[in-house]
Amino acid sequence: SSDHNEAAKDFLRGFLFSGEFCGKGGFDMTHADDLQLRAMTERDYEQCISLWRRTPGMGLGASDGPEQFVRFVVRNPGLSFVAVSGGVIVGTIMCGHDGRRGYIYHLAVDDAFRRKRIGSRLVDCALDGLKDEKIVKCTLFVFADNDAGISFWDGTGWCSRPDLQIRQRDL
Predict the structure, then answer these.
(1) Could you tell me which residues are beta bridge partners of residue 105?
(2) Which of 98, 58, 59 is nearest to 75 (CA)?
(3) pLDDT for 4-31, tens place per residue?
(4) I need a surface site. Which of 31, 44, 110, 171 has the fewest CB within 10 A?
(5) Is the distance from CB of 42 to CB of 48 less than 8 angstroms?
């Protein structure tokens, strides 16, 4: 039954996002014993924006205010995640979709927690969520001068699209 399937999904999501396991390959707990991945909530804004502001290569603008953050998280449940250690958010990924294509924004990991596969685990969780929604392609944006970001994405199987140019317009 549909209710049974939803209950099973809720149970699995609770287990998968508890920090015991999220995405492929488990979770590297070598830096902090209490490191957990969980779904991003509306209450996470202040800690997320603080991390983003101190992350080199992160672009922030008018669409990153608290109202827009809450709207995005509520509109895309179970697709955006945070990594938490000692009650502090040390990693983020925002992910959503338009019904046919997924989009990733604001993957960030605190400097002290980098090189622990946290970014990769956050990406895996977001992509697994998109797959659950039957989304088959995902796009992301990286600033051209963000060498660390480009290196990360290239090293995890993402490819650039030299045939495309991005256009943007303020509303």
Answers:
(1) 94
(2) 98
(3) 445 444 444 443 443 333 443 333 333 4
(4) 171
(5) no
Report the candidate in 162, 170, 151, 149 with the shortest Cα–Cα distance to residue 56.
Answer: 149
Long-range contacts of 48-55 (CB under 8 A, 24+ apart): 48/82, 48/89, 48/92, 48/106, 51/89, 51/90, 51/91, 51/92, 51/108, 51/110, 52/92, 52/106, 52/108, 54/110, 55/108
pTM score, two decimals?
Answer: 0.80
Give the span between the Cα atoms of 30 and 77, in whole angstroms. 29
DSSP symbols for 55-123: STT----GGGSHHHHHHHHHHSTTT-EEEEETTEEEEEEEEEE-SS-EEEEEEEE-GGGTTSSHHHHHH
